[in-house]
């Protein structure tokens, strides 16, 4: 997986922002939010493009696995190789972990803003960086399922 400039920029800004004062945070919060949103959008786009290279049966199996994990079922039971099912499950788990980490970071930033709390803002920066790392890991797992002839 290639490094995305939007993510690298966001990581650098979050690393710098961990040392900001509350007043700097107040003046820079929109810049931080915009930079984080661009990083999230770039990762989401890369994730979609990566999975678009999967064969149709993998896409179908992944959707079924996702629906099953959310307590829904489309009524169809898919039979697939146990190894592929395990790999798809790991991709799903990595996607879920990245999503949870992103939501945690956003909640921390919202709370930091409401409370004008520099320590929470610092924690949110760290959580955001961790969420991008997890998202990149999930994308690498998804890339591993692209057939060699499609790469």
Count of beta strands: 0
Share in β-strands = under 5%
Rounded mean pLDDT is 90
Low-pLDDT ranges: none
Sketch the major β-sheet.
none
Describe this structure in words.
With 151 residues, this protein is mainly α. Helix content is 78%, strand content 0%. It has one domain. It is built from five helices and no strands. It is elongated and about 55 Å long.
Gist of the model:
By secondary structure, the chain is mostly helical. The protein has one domain (5-30, 56-68, 79-150).
Which descriptors apply to this entry?
about 150 residues; mainly alpha; 5 helices
Task: Give a topology summary.
Blueprint: H1 5-17, H2 22-52, H3 56-69, H4 82-115, H5 118-143
